[in-house]
Write a structure and sequence with these properties.
alpha+beta, elongated, 49% helix, 7 strands, 251 residues, three-stranded antiparallel sheet, 10 helices, single chain
Length: 251
């Protein structure tokens, strides 16, 4: 068996089995998805052993990995050495576009990055935060026509899964901000659904007549009003918690 083409182990690997017997067929396997980390581990196990033998601090998942050194000069030297090992020993090609020598705070790995300073801490990367927001926007789209309980039920499933992975982060401030942002999305959804009933709904939730009237007659849209005092009081954090909305920060 020989590898005829290598194109990022996380995407596709083409394997071919060729026999000299004319009665046998050439078989080509196209491997994708969940098998790619397994194949990467099989091929890159020798790399792990080589890095351990050299005494490097490193972390790897499938074909993505980081090696930690003390200086840029050391990083450039190690990068060149590891690239030679991969190409000559394992017959693999390094993706130069995705490889670099840089400070940990400027890089991301599996959705995480690090803070700057002498005591770096794990932090959710900006790219992961943007992907999270995109999914929440999809679930809380004001034109979906679902009840708030249905929306929270769908959000709960997604948030708990995301939290189970990114709860490993040590910097909590981005998670606090996301909690507030989610509640604001839900207040906006509520206000859109209330429509002309906005004034009556605010009054039922204890908002004063003047504040409810000024909010209901405001020219601002649902997103702007989601930060208004009236909606913050009428739909507090405990209200959404009662519906089953989990927090990204609280255990």
């Amino acid at each position: 068996m020989n590898i005829t083409q290598y194109d990022s182990l996380s995407s596709i690997i083409f394997l071919s089995v060729i026999s000299d017997d004319p009665q046998e067929l050439k078989v080509i396997f196209c491997v994708r998805g969940v098998l790619s980390p397994l194949l990467a581990n099989l091929l890159l196990d020798d790399l792990d052993k080589e890095l351990e033998k050299r005494g490097h601090r490193f972390v790897r998942y499938a074909d993505d990995g980081n090696i930690y050194v003390r200086s840029r000069r050391a990083g450039e030297r190690v990068m060149a050495s590891v690239a030679r090992f991969l190409e000559r020993k394992l017959k693999l090609k390094v993706n130069e576009a995705k490889s670099a020598v840089d400070r940990p705070a400027n890089r991301k790995f599996l959705g995480f990055t690090f803070t700057r300073g002498r005591m770096p801490r794990r932090k959710v990367s900006e790219k992961a935060v943007l992907a999270f927001k995109a999914k929440v926007r999809e679930l809380t789209n004001r034109t979906r026509g679902r009840t708030i309980r249905q929306i929270v039920k769908e959000l709960r499933k997604y948030i708990l899964g995301w939290k189970g992975y990114f709860g490993f982060a040590e910097v909590a401030s981005p998670l606090h901000d996301l909690d507030k942002w989610i509640r604001r999305r839900l207040r906006s959804y509520h206000w859109k659904q209330w429509g002309r009933r906005g004034y009556r709904e605010l009054r039922k939730r204890g908002i004063s007549r003047d504040l409810a009237w000024n909010t209901a007659k405001s020219a601002h849209g649902p997103w702007r009003l989601s930060r208004s005092p009236a909606l913050a009081i009428a739909l507090p954090t405990r209200y959404f918690a009662g519906l089953g909305l989990p927090s990204l920060v609280e255990r």
